[in-house]
């Protein structure tokens, strides 16, 4: 009985770590993409202001 409890606790811990890792990596990708796009928009806007 104790073996089942320990095994299930260990398995849930591993699954939890994998889910958290996946979530963090995806959020990081989304933030990087968003800020890269925003920087490009700001660069274009600043170039237009310099031309005036």
Q: Measure the end-to-end span.
A: 77 Å
- The backbone outline, from C-alpha atoms, is rod-shaped
Mean pLDDT: 90
Coarse structural class: mainly alpha
Helix and strand pattern: H
Show unreliable segments: none
Over all CA atoms, what is the radius of gyration?
A: 23 Å
Q: Please tally the helical runs, counting DSSP H or I stretches of 4 or more residues.
A: 1
- Our estimate of the beta-strand percent is under 5%
- How many strands? 0
Describe the sheet with the most strands: none
Helical proportion? over 70%
Keywords: Membrane, Transmembrane, Transmembrane helix
Transmembrane segments: 6-24
Give descriptors for this structure.
52 residues, 1 helix
What does this structure look like?
The chain is mainly α and about 50 residues long. Helices cover about 95% and strands about 0% of the residues. The protein has one helix and no strands. The protein has one helix spanning about 1-50. The termini are far apart. The relative contact order is 0.07.
């Amino acid at each position: 009985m104790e073996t089942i409890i320990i095994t299930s606790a260990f398995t849930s811990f591993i699954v939890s770590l994998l889910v958290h890792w996946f979530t963090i990596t995806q959020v990081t990708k989304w933030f990087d993409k968003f800020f890269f796009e925003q920087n490009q928009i700001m660069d274009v806007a600043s170039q237009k202001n310099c031309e005036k």
